[in-house]
Specification:
CATH superfamily of the largest domain: Medium-chain alcohol dehydrogenases, catalytic domain
Order of helices and strands: EEEHEEEEEHHEHEHEHEHEHEHEHE
Radius of gyration: 19 Å
CATH architecture of the largest domain: Alpha-Beta Complex
Number of helices: 10
Bound molecules: NADP nicotinamide-adenine-dinucleotide phosphate
Helix content: 25-40%
Number of domains: 2
Low-confidence stretches: none
Number of strands: 16
Mean pLDDT: 96
Distance between the termini: 25 Å
Strand content: 25-35%
Largest sheet: 7 strands, mixed
Length: 311
């Protein structure tokens, strides 16, 4: 049987459990395609799964990691009528597959045409982080033009998209970042930038309609002070306290981002129109996946870390 290279784990642990090894070549059914992966990016979920912090028991091993891909169609399932070999697409994969691999199956609901104006390395930086930002701001946060939003962690993978999407919508955007990223956040369009290591955001920002919380813990707790009555804290990480929400006359919610082909297509249009730019901090070859994950997990990263699969 034909095989390909994929990044798999056979046990949970540190970066040393990552193994670049032969895996079976995938098959496409119905409206699925087999994608030849040109690039795949790293998200915190990858090292959380690898270290066993993110659900999933040992019975699910081996696991192939990676949720983001950009590449070209290699094979079409029998009902993937609108696609042909060589078409460039990008996608956020479901958790049952991994994109840190030379080929992967992509379902119709997970993919959209790759934005034309960026290469595969930049396109691969987009899907999971971009959809997380989009769904947090608009589906869960209901952000509208003219409203005020505070984005915690604005220089990271999700945050740097959230700043740009919120600005494109016509919102007033405040964000927290560390000092070295102040100019970066401004170039993304943030109206107000707070250095979270030197300033208390509660002293600088007030009366926001929405807090997009990418940090949790005391950052989330302290955020109630800046939310308007009737506003909301939307978190990727932690359920908020119903008691604090009631005291403030506000709401809180936690969500999980999901693949969404229509939203990915909309994000691609914003990229092609020059309204949104994915920022890639560093590119590693697939074989150096352990160094790439360690970089995101332990060091300061601006935007995204990407794996180059086809050089
Ligand atoms: N629920 C979901 O579906 C979902 C989806 C995507 C992500 N997530 C989670 O959401 C979190 C963010 O994801 P990401 O991809 O954006 O991660 P990331 O790329 O690692 O970015 C995190 C950012 O937060 C900043 N930061 C750390 N402590 C902070 C603080 N106290 N105040 C303000 N900023 C702070 C970091 O800056 P410094 O380096 O300067 O500290 C970094 O820029 C992760 O925990 C991830 O697992 C959940």
């Amino acid at each position: 049987m034909a095989s390909m290279k994929a990044v798999r784990i056979h046990d949970f642990g540190g970066p040393e459990v990552l193994s670049v090894e032969d895996a079976p070549f995938p098959q496409a059914f119905d409206d699925e395609v087999v994608l030849k992966v040109h690039a795949s990016s790293i998200n915190p979920i990858d090292y959380k799964i690898r270290s066993g912090q993110h659900g999933g028991g040992k019975d699910q091993l081996p696991i192939t990691l990676g949720r983001d891909v950009s590449g070209t169609v290699e094979l079409c399932g029998t009902r993937a009528h609108t696609l042909a070999k060589g078409d460039p697409i990008y996608a956020m994969l479901g958790r049952d597959r991994g994109g840190h691999s030379e080929y992967v199956v992509v379902k119709a609901v997970e993919m959209a045409a790759k934005p034309r104006e960026v290469d595969h390395l930049h396109a691969a930086a987009v899907p999971l982080a971009g959809l997380t930002a989009w769904q947090g701001l608009f589906d869960h946060g209901g952000l509208a033009a003219g409203q005020r939003v505070l984005i915690h962690g604005g220089a990271g993978g999700v945050g740097h998209f959230a700043i740009q999407f919120a600005k494109a919508k016509g919102a007033f955007v405040a964000t927290t970042v560390s000092g070295e990223d102040i100019d970066f956040a401004r170039t993304l369009g943030a109206d107000q930038v707070v250095d979270y290591k030197k300033q208390r955001f509660e002293d600088e920002v007030a009366e926001v309609d929405l807090v997009l919380d990418l940090i949790a813990g005391e950052t989330q707790d302290r955020s109630w002070a800046v939310v308007k009555p009737g506003g909301i804290i939307v978190s990727t990480l932690a359920e908020s306290s119903p008691e604090k929400a009631r005291q403030r006359g506000a709401r809180g919610t936690r969500y999980m981002a999901r693949p969404n082909a229509a939203q990915l297509a909309e994000i691609g249009r914003l990229i092609d129109n020059g309204k949104v730019r994915p920022y890639v901090d560093a590119v590693f070859p697939l074989k150096d996946v352990a160094a790439a994950e360690a970089r995101l997990e332990n060091e300061h990263v601006r935007g995204k870390i990407v794996l180059e699969v086809v050089a």
